[in-house]
Every structure is written in structure tokens, then in C-alpha cells.
Design a protein that fits this description.
- The chain is an alpha/beta fold.
- It has one domain: HUPs (Rossmann fold), CATH 3.40.50.
- The chain is built from four helices and five strands; from the N terminus they run βαβαβαβαβ.
- The chain has a five-stranded parallel beta sheet, sandwiched between helices.
- β1, α1 and β2 form a beta-alpha-beta unit.
- The chain is globular.
- 35% of the residues are buried.
- The structure holds adenosine-5'-triphosphate (ATP) and magnesium ion.
- The site of adenosine-5'-triphosphate (ATP) has 23 residues, from α1, β2, α3, β4 and α4.
Length: 144
């Protein structure tokens, strides 16, 4: 049913749930998993060598997040690859989904944003609105 499942990850509790569903769905369908994380665009005005150093730091942090998740998929027998991009997360997710022809996007309803009253964060809202494939949205575990 699915050949490629894109799992969008940040550092939020919802991501942990999205990863669990992503693994189960990929195992059930035999799909490949694309583990996507976007880090913020670094402004050019920083100048060198600060610009390169800052980008390296962001990349390193992104790899620290994404690589263990890729390994969790692989440990479950799922073919998984990391996709680390710079820029606004929703654009990055939509770009990878289109370029790699993902047929499902799995993501959290909320991330680390601070507006607790919102049901959906801006990234999930934008992805749901613009994705060309179905989007599977998981809510973070309830507190208490
Ligand atoms: P906002 O960012 O608008 O303040 P929020 O942080 O609560 O709201 P979102 O950012 O929309 O909520 O997060 C929803 C889901 O989007 C996350 O659970 C995750 O799956 C995905 N996501 C968020 N940020 C990123 C990112 N930088 N890279 C990849 N996926 C992301
Ligand atoms: Mg967010």
C-alpha cells in the first residue's frame, strides 16, 4: 500500500509517537522510511568563518537527532534513510515528499512550539494543507 513513508521529526514528545507509528506502518507495508528534519536557515550576514561553524553545529545536532531514529527503523528491518535540510520545516517536508514521491507523511500534531491552546502547530497545518499524499498525524501523549 505504501512504498515510501516520510516521517517528520523534531525534538518533541509527538515525534516519539510518530516514530513508533512510522516503524509499525513501514513494517506492515514493507515501505522504505525517509526520516526528515529541517534546521533553521542561518543568515548569510554572519560572515565567515562564523557561518560555516554555525552550519556545522546545526548539522551535527540534526544528525544527533536523526541518525538514532534511522537506526531504530533499521533495527526493525526497515530500509530507512536520513534527509536533513535547511529552511522552514513545512517546506522541507513538502519538498522531500514531492522529490522522493512519498506516499504517506507521518508527523506529530504539535512540536515544541509554545502556543499550548493550538490543536495543530503551524508545520502540521501547512503540511496537511499542501501535501499531495495522505498525512498521518499523531497527538503527543497526554500529561499526567
Ligand atoms: P509551531 O512550530 O507553529 O510553534 P508546534 O512546534 O507546536 O507549533 P509543529 O512545529 O507544527 O508544532 O510540529 C508538528 C510536527 O511537525 C512535529 O511533531 C514534527 O513531526 C514536525 N516538525 C516540526 N518541526 C520540524 C522540523 N524542524 N523538522 C521536521 N519535522 C518537524
Ligand atoms: Mg514547531
Amino acid at each position: 500500500m505504501f512504498d515510501k513513508i516520510l516521517v517528520a521529526v523534531d525534538r518533541s514528545p509527538a515525534t516519539e509517537k510518530a516514530v513508533k507509528y512510522g516503524i509499525d506502518l513501514a513494517k506492515l507495508t514493507g515501505a522504505q522510511a525517509l526520516i526528515v528534519h529541517a534546521y533553521p536557515k542561518i543568515p548569510d550576514y554572519l560572515g565567515e568563518p562564523n557561518l560555516s561553524q554555525t552550519i556545522s553545529r546545526h548539522l551535527e545536532r540534526a544528525e544527533e537527532l536523526v541518525n538514532p531514529i534511522v537506526e531504530r527503523f533499521q533495527a526493525e528491518g526497515v530500509d530507512a534513510i536520513p534527509e536533513i535540510l535547511e529552511g522552514p520545516p513545512a517546506d522541507a517536508i513538502l519538498r522531500v515528499a514531492k522529490a522522493r514521491e512519498a506516499d504517506l507523511i507521518v508527523m506529530g500534531a504539535r512540536g515544541l512550539g509554545s502556543v499550548a491552546s493550538l490543536l495543530l502547530g503551524s508545520v502540521s497545518q501547512k503540511v496537511i494543507a499542501h501535501a499531495e499524499c495522505p498525512v498521518f498525524v499523531v497527538h503527543e501523549p497526554k500529561e499526567g
